[in-house]
Amino acid sequence: MGSRIKDSPETTFELYVEVVHSGLVGAGPEVRRVFPDGYSDQETLQTVPKFCFPFSVDSLAVGQVGQNFTFVLTDIDSKQRFGFCRLSSGAQSCYCILSYLPWFEVFYKLLNVLADYTIKGQDGRWRELLESLHALPIPDPGVPVHLSVHAYFSVPDLRELPSIPENRNLTEYFVAVDVNNMLHLYASMLYERRVLISSSKLSTLTACVHGTAAMLYPMYWQHVYIPVLPQHLIDYCCAPMPYLIGIHSSLMEKVQGMALDDVVILNVDTNTLETPFDDLQSLPNDVVSSLKNRLKKVSTTTGDGVARAFLKAQAALFGSYRSALRIEPEEPITFNEDAFITHRSSTMRQFLQNAIQLQLFKQFIDGRLELLNSGEGFSDIFEEEINMGEYAGSDKVYHQWLLTVKKGGGAIFNTVKTKANPAMKTVYKFAKDHAKMGIKEVKSRLKQKELTENGYSGSRDEPGSTHIASTHNKDTLTWEQRRPITVHFGQARPPRPLVSKRPRSNVGLEGSPEQ
């Protein structure tokens, strides 16, 4: 389906490293400790330290200490490996876990515990925790796991919509960026622009990048994706293809001195966005108005309201794809682009004419066709949203397919047999909605959550939880390409300036560079 998440990783994490930096200009980061012992991927060991200090060292601020952030590497199969980091000791040491699992809250909490063990010199507990985690068979979503007296968690369900305040990336993104700028970023992503996000707080920076990308569901960003850019890759900002890049504000002076053409730039610290495009105005007005109204409702500040608002927008824009499915006897199901475009309103037709050229849309359609032609089918929250809304239009072909499946399948499935994407085989369930509460209460809960995690208070066993013993290790491979609740939640929110626009460009979607 175009997702970059690996379906079945062999272990919960691949690598844990402690990296130190002297703070001296010209000096590089050095690896101090590695787990598992004997980890042999030298390329990864050389790459990870550079991502652990993605800022100008001579402008270090104590405010970075204790912050969690995430970088992303991409393996040879284009699957993402997440580097979960915690800065400590005057921002001169960094604890990092590399994993294929996007368990942000889980790994950030575990990093707090590991940092505490390290500072207290409790090496026995440090090793026991890492051995238990590395040997842990990956549990099913929702299963509570106890690794040690201080380390316990519930396995996140990645099939659910992200919720506030449980999902840290979405929470911090929604608090730091106003609705207007979120809408502009959403539009820029739908037109596959080059998008640059900057902030002086690493946790906020990577949260905003991940939050922005997550709002595209059920589609996935298919181009360059770097939640935080290390100094040695700064030239990526001049890349001629679409990208979504986060960069620490200490490096922005260098970036702004480079030749940046047609780049959308969001400064999270000042909540200002610059864009040379009219992307938001190019989206169907009814979809934008509906999305904006939903985001501004108080009820969307908690639970899955924010994510569901974007899901409804995606369904309104793309949900009628079912009407363009074509079924012929003894032939694979295909997608008719003309049929997808022509049955909609004139405003929508103009948008869809561009949308069918997008890489993220092509990946989405290819994934759906693959599952339909394999006879597997799919049931996820996007399809459920289509069923509940007015977006499907006349999808007789899709229901014809469903009828065929119920009858036990026909010749089409015997003739056309492709491998289904296992990531879409499970039925997605709706995330729970939280009680209505204002953003102030959200901030209060987040602050309390952070204090609890950093204090490691409480370790009561939960009924039905899993206690894991320790054991040995395993390795994995290669490189290239999400953060905690931070101090800014307790500060006054910056003023909400209007979006500033650089001189208009005549470059439309057709002028966008292809990757």
Layout of strands and helices, then pairs:
Layout: E1 15-20, E2 30-35, H1 42-52, E3 68-74, E4 80-88, E5 93-99, H2 104-119, H3 123-135, E6 144-146, E7 152-154, H4 168-176, H5 179-190, E8 194-199, H6 202-214, E9 224-226, E10 243-248, H7 252-256, E11 263-267, E12 272-275, H8 279-282, H9 285-296, H10 305-318, E13 325-326, E14 334-335, H11 337-342, H12 346-355, H13 359-374, H14 381-388, H15 396-406, H16 411-415, H17 439-455, E15 466-467, E16 500-501
Parallel strand pairs: 6-15, 8-10, 8-11, 9-10, 12-16
Antiparallel strand pairs: 1-2, 1-5, 3-4, 4-5, 6-7, 11-12, 13-14
Helix pairs in contact: 2-3, 4-6, 9-10, 10-14
Give a structural overview.
This protein has 515 residues and is an alpha/beta fold. Helices cover 35% and strands 14% of the residues. It is built from 17 helices and 16 strands. The chain has helices spanning 42-52, 104-119, 123-135, 168-176, 179-190, 202-214, 252-256, 279-282, 285-296, 305-318, 337-342, 346-355, 359-374, 381-388, 396-406, 411-415, 439-455; strands at 15-20, 30-35, 68-74, 80-88, 93-99, 144-146, 152-154, 194-199, 224-226, 243-248, 263-267, 272-275, 325-326, 334-335, 466-467, 500-501. The chain has a six-stranded mixed β-sheet, covered by helices on one side. Strands 2-1-5-4-3 form a five-stranded antiparallel β-sheet, sandwiched between helices. Strand 3 and strand 4 form a beta hairpin. The chain is globular. Residues 408-443, 456-498 and 502-515 have low confidence and may be disordered.
